[in-house]
Amino acid sequence: MTADMDEFWVFGYGSLMWNPGFDYDRREIVTLSGFHRALCIRSWVHRGTQDSPGLVLGLDRGGSCKGAAFRVAPEMRPAVVDYLRERELVTNVYQERTLSIRFGDGRRARALTYTADRNHMQYAAGLSVEDAARTCATARGKSGHNADYVRNTVDHLKELGIRDHWMEAVARRIDALLQAS
Q1: Does residue 87 lie within any of the structural domains?
Q2: Which of 127, 153, 145, 167 minimizes the C-alpha distance to 68?
Q3: For residue 158, what pLDDT is reported?
Q4: Concatenated DSSP letters for 99-134?
Q5: Counting CB atoms within 10 angstroms of each CB, which of 73, 95, 102, 114 has the fewest?
Q6: Which residues are bridge partners to 8 per DSSP?
Q7: What's the total number of domains in the chain?
Q8: Which residue segment(s) compose the domain that 95 sits in?
Q9: pLDDT of residue 3
Q10: From the candidates 88, 96, 130, 159, which is the catalytic residue?
């Protein structure tokens, strides 16, 4: 079963899920296979600096990811794509791709998605909970403290009924590190 092929969907797995920044006519929780949510991008702008990078989410290869799919009206597609490119491609650490998503009822559709570029200098592969937490506990960028970004992500995922045990473990460890300092 496939959704209408003329529909334009955008897949969000991090802040895009609760702060898309564009108009849409429908949001659904969906699954993207072949990628998982990870703190695998060194942030030099929003949650850190080049001298002291933070970590932000990327879609990395392997596994699957529950996220939000946004259906955008056809006439809004060019403006939404322009907005997303400006938002997501600041340092070109993400690759713009169109990938298959699966809805809860089994339908499939294609969605515009931004995945981590493993060849980019900002890519941070396979960090442990401890390494990610230590980085996020101290980093700060133009959009604020990295610890707030992680906590906010975990809180919003829970509100949407999405559990991400690794992210939850990082948030707990960040809190422990900050309480100890």
Answers
A1: yes
A2: 153
A3: 95
A4: EEEEETTS-EEEEEEEEE-TTSTTB--S--HHHHHH
A5: 73
A6: 72
A7: 1
A8: 8-180
A9: 58
A10: 88
